[in-house]
Amino acid sequence: MPQLVDVPNMARWIQREGVGPIIRDMIGYLESDFRRWESFDKTPRVASHTPFGVIELMPTADSETYSFKYVNGHPFNPARGYQTVTAYGMLASVDNGYPTFFSEMTLLTALRTAATSAMVAKHLARPDSSRMTLIGAGSQSEFQSLAIREVLGIEDLSVYDVDPAAVEKLRRNLEPLGFRITAAVSVDEAVEGADIITTCTADKAQNTVLLDRHVRPGVHLNAVGGDCPGKTELDERILDRSSIFVEFPPQTRIEGEIQNKPEDYPVTEFWKVLTGDETGRKSDEEITLFDSVGFAIADFSALRFVRDATAGTDLQSEIDLVADPEDPKDLFSLVGVNSPVH
Ligand code: NAD
After folding, report:
1. What are the domain boundaries of the chain?
2. Burial of 112 from C-beta contacts in 10 A (0-12 / 13-18 / 19+)
3. Which of 130, 196, 313, 337 has the fewest Cβ atoms surrounding its Cβ within 10 A?
4. Average confidence (pLDDT) over 167-183
5. Using one digit for the tens of pLDDT, what is the confidence trace for 90-100?
């Protein structure tokens, strides 16, 4: 029977292990899957857009395992008491098509998005980076901060959000964990001295959360919030000054910061940096930009990791979601007069 990790058990697992160690180990899974990028079935995610937000299905598969994630993005949700992003997902056997593992993926998406940011920053940011700026202090923000600390040791964080209460929430959550937080009153103040800038805002608009003047040479940019058609965060001139790294170009050209650029706008597929087919950062002055939109292979890695890490523990429970009659041709036996339910 398929196994399930639900929200309470995901939360217990994260509390037990700690966000930092989980992210460190998840990066191992991500890197091994990104290195074998070409062995996966890949397609841009299937998105259903409405004026309220977007609902997306994100499938991928290797020769043994299929996975998909259901995820929404509704920027106006927090004002109504709902989260902007929620998700769940599953793994299935390619061999017989049966689901094998289900998981909540709202917390897991925050972990995997942060782990992906950290994996990329580990390879692209200047190794002497010591200061991070965060624009947007919502649900993803603590996870992003903890992930960057895990790989680069950064504890100096300058944060700006249009909602000061969100910054105070982040301060409450992260200062006890050893971060030194500056609550900036403007983006100009927030980016002073930044080596890494993460934009993680939610709005259904072509925004310029960062202007050209906010990005000095040598910065690594982690643009997380621009992930849908008509939803971007950066002044386009920043793109022209940056070396841009992406997950899966056919999806990023639809959804990422590069969505308004020509089809042949130059980008580097990040997995090629891991395999050595492409160079990452070339100089201390270069601006590197991770145009993150979130791709299905990262969810595959995250699901695989949580399945393996919680296997054989009370964090997993059985979920009876596959009708499986003794005689495979007798589905009716489950509802007929001799059904075990009668
Ligand atoms: P959230 O709604 O919890 O937080 C977003 C924060 O951004 C809010 O605190 C809001 O006040 C702030 N904000 C909005 N506009 C701003 C502006 N112009 N300047 C400064 N702050 C601003 O959302 P979340 O769950 O933290 O997600 C953040 C973004 O990341 C969303 O756009 C989401 O779609 C995206 N996301 C991307 C990936 C990925 O893989 N790239 C994964 C998950 C989420």
Report:
1. 3-107+297-323, 118-294
2. buried
3. 337
4. 98
5. 999 999 999 99
Q: Which residues line ligand 1 (CB under 6 A)?
A: 73, 78, 84-85, 109, 113, 135-141, 160-163, 166, 200-203, 207, 209, 224-225, 227, 292-294
Position in ligand 1 atom list of the atom nearest CA 228 = 34
CATH code of domain 3-107+297-323: 3.30.1780.10
| Cα angle 106, 109, 115; round to 5 | 150
What is the domain class of 118-294 according to CATH?
Answer: alpha beta
Reported as a single tens digit per residue, the pLDDT across 206-225 is 999 999 999 999 999 999 99
Show the DSSP H helices in the chain as ranges. Answer: 7-17, 19-35, 106-124, 141-152, 164-174, 187-190, 236-241, 249-255, 270-275, 296-310
Annotated catalytic residue: which of 33, 161, 195, 227? 227
Is residue 341's pLDDT more than 70?
A: no
